[in-house]
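USER:
Try writing one entry.

ASSISTANT:
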Amino acid sequence: MSAQAAPADATPYAAHGRGALLSLGTIAQFGASVMQQGTIVLGVFFALAYHLTLTQMGALLAALTFGLMCSGLANGPLVDLWGPRRVLFCGTLVITAAAIAIAFSPNLIATVALLFLAGLSLGTVPISGTKAILVAWPREHRGMPMGVRQMGVPLGALAASLALPTLASRVGLRPIYLGFALIVAICGLLFCAVLPAQTARPSRHEAHRAPGEARRILIPAIVGFLLAWGQYTLLTYTIPMMRQNGMTLVAAGALLAVAQVGGAIARLALGHISDRMGGRRAHALLGITGVGVALAVALALLPHAVPMALLVALWLGLGAAFVGWNALALTWAGERVAAAHAGSAMGLETSAVLFGATVSAPIFGAIVEWAGSYQAAWLTLAAVLALAFAILLTQTRRPESHPDADPSVEPQAISLNT
């Protein structure tokens, strides 16, 4: 059967349907994150395999994030037009093929090209999942489920941080990418099985609204670009920095895993807090960004010899501040446009975040090599996050509007048949 929603916040999902959607959406994001975040964790092994400098390693990993960035621009409108299920199914097939090809890549150039292709297709997972959640839950209650679904990102990174350094040391890169292919295929296809079919495309009236609504997500996109510097520098450089300070590879990976735990907790907490604040996402983002600025400065001033217990506490906070904001930013972007254009909005937001990830890793590495230490790089990061804080501060002084409350917006029809 099919359902046509009348009010903007009405949804065609029963409670049990929402539960399955959220559970398998989180699993799909977990599988994609294991490959995406795991590739970044494996940066030191790519550097060893191809004899790369720190800057070159950052550039290699940027191929994946650049693919993800391009993916957001293309896949967002496709999700609005064709629906999440069709886009995710095609994307899952391409991700699987790309991961298998990386396992047998003959040289560095081929690996870079395949990483770009993997990123291009990996972008279908978060955009499909976030659009599905945005449609399935009313605005005043969607912060928490968005946080739950986005927990798949730090949980995937947690699993990668704990397992991959030791595993790659024993078996090398090739078998790991075969494992990535299997995980992504299973998780993605399970989510496809419960996604509803989209039976109506955006109306002509909604299509005319799209160019004007693009301007509404400019500020969230800029903020996402800036905040991404913290998330991806932490993920990329925790292990190299700790190794330089004499920590073992396994211990450095465990410390990075602690940060992912902090990020997972923060995604849930920030979604819940923003719901309790009446959907004021910018206010919650402002608070966590302020914490991020302070912690970036603390990293710059960190002495060489620090007790492990203090490092664990610090990295838990870094994970919350540098990783925990992502779901909230996506929700903020999606809510600033009509539901019919939410995929495009979140695609643009995702692309902005990943553009930040693409440029931040090599720039951060270049600053470390130029300065001869990590201090200047962390202070640069603090300045970037301070700029995001200033932009968010201006947004909290303005009333937040929600286009879905506009009665002229024609809702989409969603079929419950899968």
Summary: Confidence is low (pLDDT under 50) at residues 1-16, 203-211, 405-418. The first helix runs from residue 15 to 41. The beta strands are 2-4, 197-198, 413-415.
